[in-house]
Design a protein that fits this description.
9 helices, 273 residues, alpha+beta, 7 strands, elongated, 7-stranded antiparallel sheet, Alpha-D-Glucose-1,6-Bisphosphate, Chain A, domain 4, single chain
């Protein structure tokens, strides 16, 4: 049982050593490979004990992974599309929350790094700056490692609702910043769009975040639940980030009435500093 588990773990470490895979994929796949190795070892051990196959037969069985691996590469990859929603009550007005969604600047790692997607290696975001352009309202996202991409506002209702659609360029993900299997918009994983809906509740706001994503692997049955949990955890942390900032600004504005006007002017979506 333990020999194939060790062999599979060493295989994953080998892919990392020659930079075929990165830390994120290794963390996610080692448990599955370990279990598959253990079960395969026990089955093969039982077969050998029951059949007493000659050594030449065992050698031919050992070649099967290489043969089947070549066939598997040409098989179509199934798509799994999901939508996840999370809601948080924010002790601030919709206008206070909207300003944070519109221009989340100077993001500190400590504000969002409790999300597991960042703990396992995805670079932490640093800012999202919204401006009006010839094509409409665009939010420019920057992250660690030089990652950058745009979010286009497909629906823009100030203080009520926004739908961001991702747009990636050829240089959005510098080499070695993300594993190919988890690169946003890549062959295996993609985020379609993200909605934020704000509903006033008394003196507060109900903030709902909706994320639509795609997973395309040959083992969606395993990766699907993990990704669903990771995306849900990400939503919780991001909602907490917006809530904390909005509540803090609302509290400061309550004690300094001029601060609210100054903040709104400095974060105008017209692109003026």
């Amino acid at each position: 049982m333990w020999a194939p588990v060790l062999a599979n773990v060493l295989f994953v470490l080998g892919t990392m050593a020659i930079m075929i895979e990165g830390l994120i994929c290794a963390i996610l796949i080692v448990p599955l490979f370990g279990v598959v190795g253990a079960v395969g070892g026990l089955i093969m051990g039982a077969v050998c004990r029951k059949t007493l196959w000659p050594r030449n037969t065992l050698y031919s069985v050992a070649v099967l992974p290489f043969v089947l691996g070549g066939l598997e590469q040409n098989m179509p990859i199934p798509n799994r599309e999901r939508t996840i929603e999370h809601v948080r009550i924010v002790r601030a007005s919709p206008a206070d929350v909207w300003r944070q969604i519109e221009n989340p600047r100077d993001i500190g790692a400590e504000e969002v790094d409790s999300a597991w997607v960042y703990r396992i290696g995805v670079p932490v975001p640093s800012a999202g700056v919204t401006e009006r352009t010839g094509e409409g309202i665009v939010r420019h996202i920057t992250m660690g490692g030089g990652i950058h991409f745009d979010e286009i506002a497909a629906d823009w209702q100030p203080n009520r609702h926004v739908r961001w659609v991702n747009r990636f360029e050829a240089d959005s993900f510098p080499p070695n910043t993300l594993d190919d299997h988890v690169k946003i918009g890549g062959r295996y994983f993609g985020i379609g769009d993200t909605d934020y809906t704000l509903v006033p509740i008394g003196e507060g706001t109900e903030l709902k975040m909706t994320v639509r994503y795609r997973l395309s692997t040959s083992f969606n049955w395993y990766a699907g639940p993990i990704l669903e949990w990771l995306v849900g955890n990400f939503e919780d942390v991001i909602l907490g980030f917006y809530a904390h900032r909005a509540e803090s600004d609302a509290a400061r504005a309550a004690t300094s009435p001029g601060l609210r006007v100054e903040y709104a002017q400095s974060h105008s979506s017209e692109g003026r500093p």
